[in-house]
Design goal:
By secondary structure, this protein is mainly alpha-helical. Helices cover about 80% and strands about 0% of the residues. The protein has three helices and no strands. The radius of gyration is 14 Å and the shape is elongated. The relative contact order is 0.17.
Length: about 80
């Protein structure tokens, strides 16, 4: 999707949160950092020459990913 994007970080954070492992908090922090970095790259990309196409094709996925990270953080607070 974007250079440097590593979707595995989100999956690992989700799995560790589900298992309530000792690494879960650190993995969630890494996922949040990755999301913030991805959102920054997305915002830069939509300012470019193909911005509308990028927004149309990728914007919804970015929002879904953000909702997933927020939900994961909320699950962790409940535990």
């Amino acid at each position: 999707m974007f250079p440097g994007y590593d979707g595995d970080k989100f999956e690992i954070a989700s799995e560790e949160t589900e298992k309530k492992s000792v690494y879960a908090a650190d993995d969630r922090a890494v996922a949040r950092e990755e999301l913030d970095s991805l959102k920054q790259a997305f915002e830069s990309a939509v300012q470019g020459p193909n911005g509308e196409e990028i927004r149309r094709r990728v914007g919804q996925r970015i929002r879904e990913l953000e909702q997933g990270v927020v939900a994961m953080e909320e699950r962790a607070k409940e535990d």
